[in-house]
């Protein structure tokens, strides 16, 4: 079992989207509804916070060093050095009760991000978008999920994983790195509350897919076929996304959220914080958004 310890007691409402920046040697992550972007070193030092003007669903690293940001129903570019934020694109056709959620840069150099119904009673009208480095938006999948989540790509760039944390399911696609084209959608797993509804995901160098079981306090490792080959307990009931960090990508960090249930929060008061563990397997290296 992985041995998770506390990296930083940040207690985000909804901590999400951890992204390792190998140039700055910091981890970026977001607190969705604060809303804020954070950065921190893996020893817990130099914690910085930038307040955002709208709900921030996810982030990705750009080749320029800037961050591409999913802000409510828009795409923005944030420069953490200059502390500047510029709106790049609006996403057409998303109703006012939708927002962007999980996003990640794919092997094609584009930022992929999904939408979700943010109402308590959700409808399966979430879509998946591709935003290239010039800000051109393509709706790749339309009305496929309740809460788009779990984006991750295999190390060879030929497989994409996508989940619906309210479905709750995980799909696998064949992926063309040159064009970003998806093919052969395959439902590899349908989960439940006990095994863990699939939240954020990441791939390792051996072709396995890691998914935070947000309802079960577990980090699950799936085979390409959807079998849970490992299931690791974590210190809080609602982990949200894993990220492989460090020079060798063998440091595993997870974000988490604060549960609404007062009893659950009292039992795990550090919910919403960052947790860290050494991993026996390296993560798949994540591409940078082609903005430069």
TrEMBL record:
Cofactor(s) needed for function: Zn(2+)
UniProt xrefs under InterPro entries: 6-blade_b-propeller_TolB-like, SGL, SMP-30
Presence of keyword Metal-binding: yes
Amino acids binding substrate: 99, 101
CC cofactor note: Binds 1 divalent metal cation per subunit.
Gene Ontology molecular function: calcium ion binding; gluconolactonase activity
Residues forming the catalytic site: 199
Pfam families per UniProt: SGL
Sites where the protein binds a divalent metal cation: 16, 149, 199
Keywords: Metal-binding, Zinc
GO term, biological process aspect, one: L-ascorbic acid biosynthetic process
Occurrences of domain SMP-30/Gluconolactonase/LRE-like region (ranges): 14-257
Family (UniProt): Belongs to the SMP-30/CGR1 family.
Annotated protein name in UniProt: SMP-30/gluconolactonase/LRE family protein
Organism: Microvirga mediterraneensis
